[in-house]
Amino acid sequence: MVIDTKDNVLLFHQQILNDPNHRYRSWEHCYSHFQRRCSFNSKDDIDTASLHLAFYLASWGMYRGSSRLLQKDYKVHIPTVRELLDDRYTSLWQLDFDSIDSGSPEIELLFQLVGKLGQIYKKVNVSPTDTLITKILLGTLCCTPAYDQWFVNGVKVWKRYKKPNQKFPASFGRNSYLGLIEFYRQNTKGLNAAQAIIAQCGITYPVMKLVDMYFWNLGYQEAQNKRT
Predict the structure, then answer these.
(1) Packing angle between helix 207-227 and helix 130-139, nearest 10 degrees?
(2) Considering only CA atoms, which of 210, 164, 166 is closest in space to residue 184?
(3) Which of 67, 113, 139, 199 is the most buried (most CB within 10 A)?
(4) Residues 6+ apart with CB under 8 A from 4
């Protein structure tokens, strides 16, 4: 199992290098589109952004048969896109993970946004799971990793091998989020090195995308090892 920060992130990224149409590239397309948010001036722009979000979520497993999203079209995400573009959340688009801490207003703002997105999906009878909400945030603002099965398992693996006594909950919440920030600060060198290598492919992956890749791949590798 690869535990080293840089090597593990690059191991994940290796999966898309030989396939220009790999499903993981849907994150790149969605994130890059939302980085042009200042040019969204019309209903058509919001509509296109919603389509990007929907396809990214589908590529990343959120439209499985058990998901109520499967019964919705892409326009169900329009209220979400409008909420994400609200000026209240401007500071969340460019978070400085070297300076924010538990007392920073951005932390409270982030979880206010999480609550608001949850309300939006409840209104259309879609369960606002931590996985759905964090995948949306990963593909747009990229201010948090996606707390899916492999990511959560990866946190547990990392704690077992590296930090058994660290207070770092595997479930999404304030304490877990602060743990992620601390992880970034302790592993800045390795993450920056991976970021620089990936950037040679034409896109700079933000901090929380790299953190997502690291823990996701740990969880995935653990599952693969158990199977073999």
Answers:
(1) 130
(2) 210
(3) 139
(4) 190
Torsions phi, psi for 74 (to 5 deg): -65, -20
**Tokens linked to 76:** 């169900």
Residue 203 carries which DSSP code?
Answer: -
- Rounded average pLDDT over 58-86: 92
Question: In angstroms, rounded to a whole number, what is the distance separating the alpha carbons of residues 181 and 115?
Answer: 21
Domain boundaries, given as residue ranges, for the chain: 5-227
Contact present, 184 and 191 (Cβ < 8 Å): yes
Angle between helices 5-17 and 207-227 (to 10 degrees): 80
The token duo for 101 is 């801490």
Q: Could you tell me if 113 and 179 are in contact, meaning their C-beta atoms sit under 8 angstroms apart?
A: no
pLDDT tens-digit map of 181-215: 999 999 999 999 999 999 999 999 999 999 999 99
Distance, in Å, from the CA atom of 117 to the CA atom of 82, rounded to the nearest integer, reads: 11
The tokens describing 53, both together, are: 């979000």
Task: Give the span between the Cα atoms of 198 and 66, in whole angstroms.
Answer: 34
Distance in angstroms (rounded) separating the CA atoms of residues 228 and 223: 9
Contact present, 204 and 197 (Cβ < 8 Å): no
Provide the pLDDT for residue 28: 97
Query: For residues 213 and 13, is the Cβ–Cβ distance under 8 A?
Result: yes
Query: Amino acid letter at 140?
Result: T
Let me know: does 210 contact 6? Beta carbons within 8 Å. Answer: no
